[in-house]
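Reviewer 2 asked us to include a model.

Predict the structure of this chain.
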Amino acid sequence: MLALLTLGACGSLHNPPPTDPDDLADYKAANDPYEPLNRKMYNVQMWAYHVALRPVAKAWVWAVPKPVRHTISNINETWREPAVFFSDVGAGKPRRAGDSFMRFTINMSAGVAGFFDVASLVGYKQHETDPGMTMGTWGVPSGPYLFIPFVGPSNFRDGAGYALGQALTPINYVPRGYGLLTFNWAYNILGTVDGFANSVDQIDHLEQDSLDPYSYVRSAWQQNRQSQIDAMQNDHRATTPDWYN
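Predicted model (structure tokens):
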């Protein structure tokens, strides 16, 4: 990210604010002063998507049965739960934190290290929270929009949140012995492939139907991100789960 921002300091990769009032309003609404750089990074990812990621994702869907792919998704969700838990705690949402704690506890035990999503069956549904969202509830400004290859849409705040989320994910601290490091690599690689496989149809439709896919992705992501933060701020549920009442 630091390298990208250093490049972004170059005039050709940075859009200065326009002087026309209408254009300035659009400029501020887009929140994308590094648009020339971001478009280049978007094009890099889409080149890699068409050359390698899409064919691999298609082969993955064809070769790997759906129950196996679902299991890999469960593992990824379960091993992210500690980051979700600490993010919920940081946002002051005990009910959400309790749900994520129970999901991790149940799925790591009864779900056999996350292979099965037993927690959802007993009332603890999966929800998305990350450190970037938590900082958003604190009022931390998002900063300019960024597109980071192989990470996707982000901004200064969520870029820092992504790093914190990785630090809070326990699988990233596995020791080298007993084949656990190999498991860590497999977990990350297969999780990435499965994520792209689940998004192939959406990406294809986006490229076919949108006149400017980059702008559409930027706008949709920013709106969805703000809606996630608003939903978390407005989550005032009681601490005890629904099934207890």
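DSSP finds ten helices and two strands in the chain. Residues 100 and 199 are 25 Å apart (CA to CA). We have added this to the supplementary material.
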